Amino acid sequence: MQKIIPDAPHEVLLVLDGSTGQNAFEQAKQFTLATEVTALALTKLDGTAKGGVVIGISDQFKIPVKYIGIGEKMEHLQIFNRREFVESLFS
C-alpha cells in the first residue's frame, strides 16, 4: 500500500469472530504483537454469540471497537454503538 499511498496504512483493523469466545483473546494477543492494531471489528453477532468477550479485549489491549457485523451483507456491517451493545448483552 505504501507504494501507492505513502502514509498508508491509515488504520489496521483486527476482525474477530464473535462466536470464538475466549479464543479471541489469544488472537488479539498474537495480532497486537505482530502489528499495531488501531481498531476492532466484531462479526457474527447475528447468531447465538453475544460477543461480550470484545469488551475485555478492547480494555486489555486498549483498542477501540469500530464495527460490528450482524449478518452476511454489506449493510449488516454497522458502526459500533457501545450503549446499544451493552444493552443487548443484558436483554
Describe the structure.
With 91 residues, the protein is an alpha/beta fold. The protein has a single domain, classed as Rossmann fold, CATH 3.40.50.300. Helix content is 32%, strand content 20%. It has helices at 23-34, 53-61, 82-89; strands at 13-17, 39-43, 65-69, 77-79. A four-stranded mixed beta sheet has the order 1-2-3-4, with helices on one face. A hairpin with a 7-residue loop joins strand 3 and strand 4. The chain starts with 12 loop residues before the first strand and ends with a helix. The model has no long low-confidence stretch (mean pLDDT 88).
Search tags:
alpha/beta, 91 residues, single chain, Rossmann fold
Short description:
Helices cover 32% and strands 20% of the residues.
- Give the CA-CA distance, first to last residue: 42 Å
Judging from the principal axes of the Cα atoms, what is the shape?
globular
The CATH homologous superfamily corresponds to P-loop containing nucleotide triphosphate hydrolases
The fold-level CATH name is Rossmann fold
Regions with pLDDT < 50 over 5+ consecutive residues?
A: none
- Main sheet characteristics: 4 strands, mixed
Strand proportion: 15-25%
Number of strands: 4
Structural class: alpha/beta
Q: Counting H and I runs of at least 4 residues, what is the number of helices?
A: 3
The number of domains is 1
- Over the alpha carbons, how many angstroms does the gyration radius reach? 14 Å
Order of helices and strands: EHEHEEH
Helix content: 25-40%
**CATH class assignment:** Alpha Beta
Return the average pLDDT rounded to an integer.
88
Q: Give the strand line-up of the largest sheet.
A: 1-2-3-4
* CATH architectural name: 3-Layer(aba) Sandwich
